[in-house]
Specification:
About 40% of the residues lie in helices and about 25% in strands. It has helices at about 20-40, 55, 60-65, 85-105, 140-160, 175-180, 185-195, 200-210, 215-220, 230-240, 245-260, 265-270, 310, 325-330, 335-340, 355-370, 385-390; strands at about 5, 15-20, 45, 50, 70, 80, 110-115, 130-135, 165-170, 225-230, 270-275, 285-290, 300-305, 320-325, 345-350, 375-380, 395-405, 405-415, 420-430. The radius of gyration is 27 Å and the shape is elongated.
């Protein structure tokens, strides 16, 4: 039975409402993802919904600060903000509590489930975003980045997503090449915007107008099209040579090599993008995005953000990712819905059923719960209505209980995924 999610009807613009089937589905999804994270050693933390604005703003870019929902706290006059991003909060938490241990080389792994609220940057963008994610703090090794890629892949496969692509990029590669062209601030902004749109011709024209030699402009613009399997890095090194920042390319290759050691299946899901320039400004190294067919925005965003903890007084490397639960729900579609019936049993009775019928129905519901099913009594005027109500609740069984002469008749119906059929029937004297 299709689950219904109501968007923007009773809720504020950009908010999300969900009915019980969708809510249960979301809870299962979150639980499965967190269990996967915890099996890798990531302990769950919770962060405040409201923080002093100056604290959370320290970890955000100017553009992201503009999206914060801010207000004056009653009684104190403090400017506070709703949680707009979990990563700065965890960076602040760890820096406050474990700054000395981070300096000594201790590594921390945390996971979370949280809702974030942002002023929409464009029309139609949701104000609420529902996330689960992980943060790995204190480890600068390429194997830490590879762990995040591998964990992301394992978590998505655990919840049943089978078709997706993991885009891998380095936050400083394309921008580093552009910076080497000696552009003015205005020209740099123009070129970065064209890179974000993968406008190769536009990049080349903008560089030429800025005085960059034709051959160099063409080589830089070619990064727009240099995306594909991991071997695109080796091809770019051979064709572009010293145009590429050697240290950045080497760092990207080390991560790709570490991921490749996990097996060919994972490597086959990787797409390396050498011309990626979009995203939060706090990313400093390898970045990942995950895409799935039919979903317009990334399911996962993440990457290395080595400068973040320093903003909170405890310089240390860090990396992490967040899964957009609404996007993941959309990607999973019916696959989760089919697995979401989780042994629910509806006991249906007619309106006005007498005490003996209600007592018998309550007994059936109690026994079903003792056997591990969700079970409750639902009123229905007739059997088709009872079946419809049970299907809406994603039930696997429905017992239709009604009085028949001096006996109480119970017909147990099972759902095979497309229709209900009677699995057993019995009567008891009342």
């Amino acid at each position: 039975m299709a689950e219904r999610v109501l968007v923007g009807l009773g809720a504020a613009a950009g908010g999300r409402e969900s009915m019980p089937p969708a809510s249960r589905r979301r809870e299962r999804l979150v639980r499965s993802l967190l269990e996967e994270f915890e099996s890798w050693g990531y302990g769950r933390v919770q962060t405040p919904l409201v923080e002093p604005y100056d604290v959370i703003a320290r970890g955000l870019s100017e553009a992201d600060r503009a999206q914060c929902v801010r207000f004056i706290e009653a009684g104190t006059g403090t400017l506070v903000a709703l949680r707009a991003d979990v990563t700065p909060q965890i960076a602040r938490l760890v820096a406050d509590r474990f700054g000395d241990e981070l300096a000594a080389g201790v590594v921390y792994r945390y996971c979370y489930a949280a809702d974030v609220v942002r002023q929409p940057a464009v029309q139609g963008e949701p104000a609420e975003q529902h996330q689960v994610g992980v943060e790995l703090l204190g480890d600068a090794d390429a194997w830490a980045d590879a762990e995040l890629v591998t964990l992301c892949d394992a978590a998505l496969r655990r919840v049943g997503l089978t078709t997706f692509a993991i885009d891998v990029a380095h936050a400083q590669l394309a921008s580093g090449v552009i910076d080497g062209a000696g552009l003015s601030a205005a020209a740099r902004t123009d070129v970065l915007g064209r890179f974000a749109r993968k406008d190769r011709g536009g990049v080349e024209d903008a560089l030429a107008r800025a005085g960059v030699a034709s051959s160099r402009a063409s080589a830089i613009a070619s990064l727009c099209d240099r995306l594909g399997p991991p071997h695109v890095v080796a091809v770019a090194k051979r064709e572009l040579g010293t145009l590429l920042p050697a240290a950045i390319v080497d760092a990207l290759e080390r991560v790709l090599d570490a991921v490749a050691s996990e097996g060919d299946d994972l490597a086959a899901r990787l797409t390396v993008d050498l011309g990626e320039t979009r995203g939060f400004d706090y990313y400093s190294g390898v970045r990942i995005r995950v895409w799935a067919p039919g979903v317009a925005r990334p399911i996962v965003r993440g990457g290395r953000y080595d400068a973040m903890l320093g903003r909170y007084g405890a310089p240390a490397p860090a990396t992490g990712f967040a899964i957009d639960l609404d996007a993941l729900d959309q990607a999973l579609g019916a696959s989760v819905e089919a697995s979401g019936t989780d042994r629910a049993h509806v006991i249906a009775v007619e309106p006005g059923a007498d005490a003996a019928v209600r007592k018998h129905a309550a007994s059936l519901a109690r026994r079903a719960r003792e056997q591990g099913e969700r079970a409750w009594i639902q009123r229905a005027a007739d059997q088709p209505t009872a079946e419809s109500r049970a299907a809406e609740a994603c039930a696997t069984r429905m017992s239709w209980v009604r009085r028949n002469a001096s006996a109480i008749e119970t017909r147990v119906h099972a759902y095979d995924g497309t229709r209900w059929h009677i699995s057993e029937s019995h009567s008891e004297e009342s």
